[in-house]
Amino acid sequence: MKHQTLLVALIAPAAVACTDLGANPSSSPRPHPTNTAPLPDSGTRPPDGGMSMKDAQTIVDRWAPPPDTFAPPPVTDANSEPPPDPGCGLNTGFAGDEECILPPPPDLGFQVHVGPSNYENPEADYVLQPGVEKTTPFRAVAGNDADSYFYYRQYRMRPTAHHVILSTPNGTGVDTGRRIGTANTSQDFPAGGVIAPEDEGVGMSIAAHSPITVDFHSINTTSKPQLREVWVNFWYRDASKVTQPAISWFETGSVTFSVPPRASQRLGPYTCSIQGEGRLLWLYGHRHANNVRFNVARVRGLQRDVIYDAFKWEEPLLLEYNSKVTNRAPDPDPAKKVEGGWSGILDLRTGDKIEWFCDVVNNNDTALRFTNQTYLGEMCIVDAEAVGSDCR
How many C-beta atoms surround the C-beta of residue 69 within 10 A? Predict the structure, then answer.
């Protein structure tokens, strides 16, 4: 997603609802009763002092496609490659209709959807006015009737999306639970649903009907109102074949930095230490509009191997590390801005370190701090998943 300079404003959330695509997805779907319940105000706020969760509500989106030509072709094995994305045929007049994706067949997965229940009269939570930026913690419920495993995920979001983070509770009643999915753009992981041979036993668990927090950051850089909407498909894995639980990483580096106005500064290097023998599945660097370089390396003794080097904040690079993927090697000359990283299986050992830094150029008249504001704040966060290894 590409952004233009804008004046940022924050608006508190109102309501959350489900979408019923109806029998004719080429037209605006009819409104239907929503399965929602108000949540109490937790009193907690993000670091930028933005909206609370007072008016966020629970959504349950378990719509299954009708048994007609719009349903995807059947898949006989949950570990098979899913069928091509058929789209939904939306024609709402808002940007991003082509991003809509149908849910998996109910026996093969479920969809988490955040968006309006009626495109002709969308709820205020899902309409983003020109120049407005919001970060909202929506609530969802997983559509699995039994404890399950998943690995393949499909993310689709309208152009207003900056990031979506899905997590399940950590048992203490707060939102910072275990991450089960994250994306900055519409993409599949693994790409095309192709699972490498060494990853056949990889899976991530999710309890039946698990509550899910959907942290949704959106920004409208256009001159017209736009919709906030995201679809995420989770495809099941055969539990009997899952032998390697996937471990999510979320390494923030520092949350107390301050980059002076009109200054350049390197954030980091930050490090975390590997615990356990394993390998990295994927990684991307989460940053904002003032970032000009995000560099990550695996450090083993005196050897520093660059595994991720990216320069385009508006089109964030995500790299997979397996026997099926060849990533372009990073150029040793950052002036050429060639993005890339490690190719093939990326092994990890106890004692290794992951080291990363962000180069930031502050073009604003105010200091940059750790906030969710795309243009007036910054972050230098490593998001990743691994098997056998955690990074602390």
Answer: 7
Please name which of 385, 224, 389, 245 lies closest in space to residue 320, comparing C-alpha atoms: 385
Q: Where in the chain are all domains bearing CATH 2.60.120.230?
A: 247-391
CB-based contacts of 368: which residues, under 8 Å, 6+ apart?
257, 258, 259, 290, 360, 362, 376, 377, 378
pLDDT in tens, 130-188: 999 999 999 999 999 999 999 999 999 999 999 999 999 764 443 446 899 999 999 99
Fill in the DSSP letter of residue 84: P
CATH class of 58-242: mainly beta
Find out whether 352 and 299 touch, Cβ atoms under 8 Å.
yes
* CA-based nearest residue to 167, from 188, 142, 150: 142
Q: Tell me the per-residue pLDDT of 269-309, one tens digit each, with 9 for 90 and over.
A: 999 999 999 999 999 999 999 999 999 999 999 999 999 99
Measured between alpha carbons, how far is 376 from 132 in angstroms, rounded to an integer?
Answer: 13
Cα angle: 39, vertex 44, 47; to 5 degrees: 135
CATH 3.30.43.10: does it fit domain 247-391? no
CA atoms of 138 and 288, how far apart (whole Å) = 22
Where does the chain have alpha helices with state H?
none
Cβ atoms of 267 and 380 within 8 Å: the answer is: yes
CB 213 within 8 A of CB 175: yes
Q: Give the amino acid at 152.
A: Y
Provide the whole-model pTM: 0.78
